[in-house]
Amino acid sequence: MTSVFLKVDGLRFTYRGGKKPALDGVDLSVDRGERVYVMGRSEAGKSSLCFSLRGLIPECCPGEYAGEVLLEGKSIAERRVRELAGQIGIVFQDFESQLFCTTVELEVAFTPQNLGVPREEIERRVPRCLELVGLQGFEKREPTTLSGGEKQRLALAAVLAGEPELLILDEVTSDLDPAGKKDVLRVVSSLNAGRQTIVAATHAHEEVSQADSILILDEGKVATRGSAAEILCKPRLMERNGIRPREINLLAEEAEMPALPPEGNPAGLFGKIKTRFNALKFQEILEKEKERAGSYGQPIIEARGLTFCPEKGKEIVSGVDLSIREREVVAIVGKNGAGKTTLIKHFNGLLLPTRGEVRVKGTSTKKRSPFGLCKTVGLVFQNPDHQIFSDTVRKEVSFGPKNFGVPQTEIEERVAEALTAVGLKGLEEDDPLMLPKGGRQKVAVASILAMRPELLVFDEPTTGLDYDETVALMELVRELNKKGHTVVLVTHTMWVVARYAQRVVVMDEGKVVADTTPRALFANPSLLESAGLTAPEVATLSNNFLAKTLLSATELAYCLEAR
Amino acid sequence: MRELSLYVNKEALISRIDPRAKSAATAALFVVAMSFNDPVYLLGLLLFEAWLVLASRSLVNIKRVKVLLGLLFVFSAVMWTLFLREGPVLFRFGPVRVRGDSALYGLGMGLRLVSMVVAGLVFLSSTMVEEFVFALRKFGLPLPVAFAFSLAFRMVSQLVKTAGTVKQAQQIRGLDVDSGGILQRIKKHIPLLIPIFVYSIKSVDSLTRALEARGFRCTRKQTPFIIKQMTFGDYAVIGIAAVAAVAAIVLRVKGFGEVLPRL
Q1: How many CB atoms lie within 10 A of CB B63?
Q2: Chain A within 8 Å of B50 (Cβ-Cβ)?
C-alpha cells in the first residue's frame, strides 16, 4: 500500500473582507507520483487551494484559516513559505510576475541560490533544468525577449531547479497561445518520466487527459473527484461546474452512444454518426454562410500596405492589406507576438502606420484623432483592470459619453442600454473593482458600448474567464452583431473562433498569412501547423471521419437525421 | 510592447570589466563632470565618453534617449544663459540680455548634464542588474537593499508599460489630459492614476508571493552565482578613475576649467 504523500484535512479559508469562504472544508489526499488536476468555474477555489498547498495561504494572504495541510505527515504550517521552496514548487498563471533576473541562466539559478545550494551543484542543475523544458541554448537570453510559452517554461525550469517533490501549477497555460500551451503541456507530462507529483489547476479539459485523478471544486467545496476517464465522460457534470465539456461526448450523448474516454477510439461513434449524417443539412449550413458573406455592408476598416516599425529594422506589422466590412465578425488569430494587438491599435488611431494607410469609413487615421475615431471604433482592452477607476459601475460606464459632452439625460439612457446589453442591470451602484473578472470584463464592454461605436474590437476578451463566463460574453458579442455592430476579435481560443467568428485572419510574424473562413482554416492542417494553431476536436474528427469540417457539436448535431 | 531594459547583451570590451571597477569609473566620470563648468573641458569629457559609447556598443541606447539628451542640453543652456547675470552684455533681443560668461556657463551646464546621463547609460548598457547588485554587495550594502535596487529596475520598467496601456485605455474613452486649466488637468489624471495604482499593488502582491515561493529571504546568505575576480585590468581601471577624479578636483582648485567661480 502506498503512503499518502500530501493530505489536506478540512481546509477552510476566508480572505480578509471576503463575504464567503474561498475554501470550505476541502479534504484531499495525493500519493507520491500522482497527478491531480483541480477544475471548476472561476472563484471555485482552485487558486486558493494551490496557494494553501504551497503555504502562501495563510502566510502571504491574510484571512481566517482552519484545517491542515500535511506533507509526508508533517504540517506545512510549521514552516515558513520560503523554507518549503526545496520541497514544494509553484508556477503561477502570470509568467511576467515570477521572472526576476536578466538572463535565463540566472533565473534558473535563483531558486537554488536562495536555498543555499552549493555553486557547483547549481551549475549542474541549471543546464539540466533548461534541457528538461527545452530551453537549452537560451542561457544568455534576456527573459523579456522570450515568447509567452518560453517564459512559462522558464518559470517552470526555475521552480524545478529547487528540485521540489511536489509541483503545483496554477492555471499555467491560461495566458498562452495554442503552440505555447502545447509546449508547456508536453514538458509537464514528461517530468520525472511522468512520475512527478503534480497538483494543477486548470479550466481546460484538453490538459487533463493524463491526470490520475480530477478534483472538481464548487464554491470552495469538493463537488466530486474521479479518474480523468470518469470525469471527462460526464459532459453534463462538467457543464454544471462551469467547465467546457469535451464536445465529442455531447455528440455521443446525442447519438446515444457511450461517452469516449480520453484515449478512446472515436471510429465507432463516427461510424454511427455517419449513418445519420444528412449531407443536405450540411449543404444548408454552407449556403447560409455564403448568403451571410454576401450581406455585409461597406468597408468600415481598410488597411493598405500597413507597416508598423517602432524602431529601425523592427517591423511588428508588415505590409498588411485588410478590409473589414459592416456587420462582419472577424477573428484575428496567431501566435503571441504575431502583431495582432499592434494591428488592431491602428483601427482607432492609437498607433499610426509607419508606412501604408488605414482608413476608417473612408478617412485616413492620420487625418483623425483617436478622440474622434473612438466614436466609430470601440476597443475593449484585454485586461479590464487597465481602465476601471470609478467607485460605481454607473460612473465607470458613463465616463466615455461624459467626455464626449453627451447630455446627462442621454448618458443615463446609454448607461441603462449598455448595462442591459451586458447583463449588469441592477448593479449600477456596485463597486466595479469588487466584481469577479467576468463581471469586470462586462463593465469594460459596457463602458465602450455606451459610446455607441459601430465597430467593436475585443483584444483577447476571454483570457482568464471560465466556460460560463466565456459563453456569456461571446453570446453578448453575437447579440451585438445581430443588432448591427461589426466585431473584430483577437483570440487564442479556437473553439470561440469556430463557434462565433464568420471570418478569420491568421497572422504570423507581423504578416497576414491567411484571410479565410473558420471552416476553411480548420480544414487546412498545414496552415494550422505553420501558424501554431490547433483545430477544435470536433473539427479534426469530422475532417478525419466525415471528410467535412464541422465547427461544433451543435452544428454536427443539427446535421444528424432525427431518429 | 517596446522593451525597456537598457543592458546590451554583447561581448563588448567594457562589458567585461568588473562591475566594481565600472561603478568606480562611472563615479569618477561624475566627479570630473561636476568639477568643471568650462564647456571646452566638458566637451573633452563628452568626446571621451563618445569613445566609451562605441566601446560598450551602447549607441542603440543613446539613440533611444536622443530627444531627452537634446532637450536637457538646450533647456539647460538657454535657461542659464537667460537667468544668470554674469559678465558683460554681448547683445540684446528686446528685453533679453545675453551675457558672454552666462552663455558659456549655460553651455557648460548643458554639456555637464548630457555627459552625466551618457556616463550612466554606458554603465547600464554594459552591466547586468545582477552584476550591479554584486558590486553593491561587495561595497558592503546589505542584501535587502542591493536586491531592492534590482527590483526597482524591474518595477520601473513594468510601471512604464502599465502606464502606457492605461493611458491608451482611457484615451479611447475620450480622456484628454492635455487640455484645461491646472486643476482640471490634475483632476483628469485620476482615471490614469487609480488603475495604475491598483495594478501596481496587485503586481507587487504577485511579486512578493513569487519571491517567497522561490525561497528568497533577506536574512539568509544566498549562494553567489555570479563570481567576478578582479583582474589587473580592473585594478588599473579603478586606479585611472581615481587619478582622473583627483586630478580634476586639483585642476579646478587651481582655477582651471571654470568660466565662473561656482559649481
Answers
A1: 12
A2: no
